[in-house]
Amino acid sequence: MGVESVVIASGQTVAVLGASGFMGSHLVDALLARGCQVRALCRSYPGLISPEAVANPLLEHRPLDFGLPAGLQGLMEGVEVCFHLISTTIPAASNLDPVYDVQSNLGSTLQLLEAVRKAGVRRIVFTSSGGTVYGQPDTVPISEDHANNPTCSYGITKLAIEKYLGLYRKLHGLESVVLRVANPYGERQRQAAVQGAIPVFLSRALRHQPIEVWGNGNVVRDYVYVGDVVSALLAAAAYQGCHYIFNIGSGQGLSLNQLIHAIEKELGRPVRVNHQPGRDFDIPINVLDISLAAVELGWTPQVPFADGLSRLHLCLSQVQPS
């Protein structure tokens, strides 16, 4: 079964955990455009939320420190769909303090699930990690039934949250949909972040600074435009079928060397590259099989990589000289 006709509709109250972040801020825009009452749950506000969204009376901010999730049930009262986009860690650093990773992400999510259950929230949509839950792939592209062997605490924690969502579905009938998102990119993505190769590489190239590459540049990743991720989130909220885990990506791989070449083509000039020693936790290739999402969610990515890169280029050019 595919997508129900209208689920995310005008007048519904939805909660977005991580609303002030990169993906969350774009999701807020899309929900407001549909006339939803949006409850932005985040620590920093407005963060990356657009000024237009902040001025919209349909948006309300409720402070939330996900590492200290007190009062969650009150924040969930009246909510019909909850989008869980928060992570307190990143893959590269999660192994340095796995105790914090588990306590702040898994522990806090379990408190969220209890709050959601008690408040009567109909559905939770969770963004997992298509880039880390699988580990070293046996086959490419990677389908949802591939073995899960994460090589970092971040991926293990994401996978554990998926399992608890399944448990709450079985025990309490809490509807949930998990999106294993590849590597999202697009406007508003932080240029100085320690993850997100595309904005980091492009912003350094615009400033005529060398791009730092770990290893030989042959690592292959699946990059998906943020607007396509938002479309998948909305489709997941509406889905009425029997599956509840979906890969969300472009379905195509791009090496770091190919990414740099695309940036050079976009800018019309060569860029400098510095190669650093490779990292042990970097999987050589990760490309997702997105055919299940196409069949079940009616979702496929609509923005080609070159177009998404051009949109990000335009955005970054407005805040720094090229």
Distance between the termini: 48 Å
Helicity level: 25-40%
Instruction: Say how many strands there are.
Output: 13
H and E order: EHEHEHEHHEHEEHEEEHEEHEHH
Write the layout of secondary structure elements.
Layout: E1 13-17, H1 22-33, E2 37-42, H2 51-54, E3 59-63, H3 72-76, E4 81-84, H4 91-94, H5 98-119, E5 123-129, H6 153-172, E6 175-181, E7 183-185, H7 197-206, E8 211-214, E9 220-221, E10 223-225, H8 226-238, E11 245-248, E12 254-255, H9 256-267, E13 273-276, H10 291-296, H11 305-317
Care to describe what's here?
It contains eleven helices and 13 strands. 45% of the residues are buried. By secondary structure, the chain is of the alpha/beta class. Strand 5, helix 6 and strand 6 form a beta-alpha-beta unit. The protein is globular and about 55 Å long. The chain starts with 12 loop residues before the first strand and ends in a 5-residue tail after the last helix. The N terminus is likely disordered.
